[in-house]
Amino acid sequence: MNKIRGNMARKRILQRPKPYVMKENKRTGKLYLKRERPPFIGELPYVMALVIAVCFAMFSCLYYIQVRTKVEYRIHQMEALERQFLSLKNNNTLTERELYRTPDLNHIYEIAVEELGMVPATENNVRLFERSNSEFVYQTDNIPNMGF
Asked: For the chain, how big is the Rg over CA atoms in Å?
């Protein structure tokens, strides 16, 4: 490159760095070529920015995985609670139906006494029989009329 300053032309001599340098191996003593690199001090801010960005991305991914795991765990808990709720609701419905199907004993007593003319048993109306080895009790006499 030629630069002109004033009335005198100067020729600039550029020295290119040697791309390879001969080095000697300390153990074996053999010569080998090593590539000379300029120091990358000017690139240090970019490298640091890249390292920070990679660390931020890594921690963001880990945080996302942690949050996603918590969400899935809570979804499974909610599903289990929903199943338990439906089971309890079904049991409650079955119990309620059974209660409505069960007759009211007071109402049955009123119908038996008032409409059918039945009377409650007294001690005079009850006869006890001795039980034999068999499971049946045989009636040999007629049941006496006690005035009913």
From this structure: 53
